[in-house]
Amino acid sequence: MLPRRMLIIIALARPPGERALPMQKIGFAEALDSIVASDPRYHRDAYVFLRDALDYTTKQQKKSKGAAVRHVAGPELLEGVRLYGVKEFGPMAMTVFSHWGIERCEDLGNMVFNLIGAGIFGKTEQDSIEDFKAVYDFHDAFVKPFQPAPQITPNKPPPALPAPKIS
């Protein structure tokens, strides 16, 4: 997609009698303005992250499958969000998501469907908001990986201390 300035320059430079270029679809920034104004539950940056997580997911799928990915289903996107969130934010992922208004998988589903409604994301007949329902627990996904491993104590009693030497 060409930036608006570039589109205008190209339109002005066309030869006389040639058809004008069609109207450009709404851009991502404009779509976010509209989405956040109509549904303020989620921070604008959360939508940028979600778009980036989708890109990350498709690249990961392309690496593993070796072919271009045409569609990412809800659970696949959520797994990409989990991996990308941990990669980008580490142990702060849960804090960042909470700041953005994201507390569970269903929130990401609402955001996806807001982007679909704005024409930014597409969907198939099989896609549903239900695809995002309780796919994983946020604490398990974003906190547990950074908690220290529990200390395993054997069932043996500790070794006895040697008796003190009397001189």
Question: How would you characterize the overall build of this protein?
Answer:
The protein has 167 residues and is mainly α. The chain has helices spanning 4-13, 28-38, 44-65, 74-89, 93-100, 105-117, 138-142. It has one domain. The protein is built from 7 helices and no strands. Helix 3 crosses helix 4.
Concise structural overview:
The protein is mostly helical and 167 residues long. The chain is built from seven helices and no strands.
What would the keywords be for this entry?
mainly alpha; 167 residues; 0% strand
Unreliable residue stretches: 1-24
Gyration radius, in Å: 25 Å
Structural classification: mainly alpha
> What is the N-to-C succession of helices and strands?
HHHHHHH
Number of alpha- plus pi-helical segments: 7
**How many domains is the backbone divided into?**
1
Percent helix, as a range, is: 40-55%
**How can the largest sheet be summarized?**
none
**How far do the termini sit from each other?**
90 Å
Q: Mean pLDDT, rounded to whole units?
A: 84
